[in-house]
Design a protein that fits this description.
hydrolase activity, Rossmann fold, binds magnesium ion, alpha/beta, binds adenosine-5'-diphosphate, EC 3.6.-.-
């Protein structure tokens, strides 16, 4: 086993949108799987008390003795909660729902995740953080620890107000906690190419956010609901399908954007 000649630090990407059901978890896992397919070392971090990302790799959150709760609240080493599956997953369970209150009196509460990453930054090329559907302390921890943010947007129910609110939160994070964090891109998800509405929604996105909107689009298909039930990414579940291909294309776009 040869060590790489030059060790480099992971690029940390948070997947955020305070709206639920926009494919944050799906995008976190499948983009991570696409990076891994390209030979990158990838960690996914589940910051959602619902533990959907953890479950989507076939891990039962109720079976976990320690989880991201212990990392954030008690400074447990993140290595203790990483399970190796298709990709590495730092697992969440429902107790994470109590983390925001448990952390509220902690000094440096916004930086708990950033601090947890420090010892493992050289172990990975990418760290992908799934966030809950809110802009509370768990998401603030993710945005503070991140180099970049990917914003999945469901084109069917486009909420411009929601996106502006997310941008305002990001501005506050930049001013107070993490000056360099920026949006890597906005990703149109759950695109039903048959409807005029989806087309219009993407046009509105592009008018408002220009080239911040990824060229990749993630179309609607039942494969995305089927794969997690088997504990797999769509890249493993249906490697030749268009669902897998769309995340490979997104990976190419992100890999082509600077740094790596
Ligand atoms: P979030 O994490 O933002 O709440 P999820 O990733 O859990 O969203 O996705 C919400 C639901 O939509 C899940 O049931 C998921 O399987 C499904 N889904 C995600 N992406 C797609 C897609 N491109 N086509 C069809 N269903 C999808
Ligand atoms: Mg989710």
């Amino acid at each position: 086993h040869m060590e790489p000649a030059v060790s480099s630090k992971a690029k940390v990407i948070a997947f955020a949108n305070q709206k639920g059901g926009v494919a944050k978890t799906t995008t976190t896992l499948n983009l991570a799987a696409a990076f891994a397919e390209e030979g990158h070392r990838v960690l996914c971090v589940d910051m959602d008390p619902q533990g959907n990302l953890t479950m989507s790799q076939g891990i039962d959150p109720d079976s976990l003795e320690k989880s991201m709760f212990d990392v954030l609240v008690y400074d447990l080493s993140i290595r203790e909660v990483i399970r190796r599956r298709e990709i590495d997953v730092a697992c969440a369970s429902i107790d994470l729902a109590g983390a925001e209150i448990a952390m509220s009196t902690k000094i440096g509460r916004e930086r708990s995740l950033e601090k947890a990453f420090r010892p493992i930054l050289e172990d990975y090329d990418f760290i992908c953080i799934d966030t809950p559907p809110s802009l509370g302390l768990l998401t603030i921890n993710a945005l503070t620890a991140a180099d970049k943010v990917i914003v999945p947007v469901q084109c069917e129910y486009l909420s411009m107000r929601g996106l502006i609110q997310l941008q305002n939160t990001l501005s506050m994070i930049r001013e107070n906690l993490n000056p360099d964090v920026d949006i890597e891109g906005i990703l149109p998800t759950l695109v039903d190419s048959r409807t005029i509405h989806a087309k219009e929604a993407i046009e509105i996105l592009e008018e408002n956010f220009g080239d911040r909107v990824f060229a990749s689009r993630i179309k609607k298909t039942v494969r995305f609901a089927e794969a997690p039930v088997r504990g797999m990414s769509v890249l493993k579940y249906d490697p030749d399908g268009m669902a897998a291909q769309s995340y490979r294309e997104l990976a190419k776009e992100v890999l082509g954007n600077g740094k790596r």
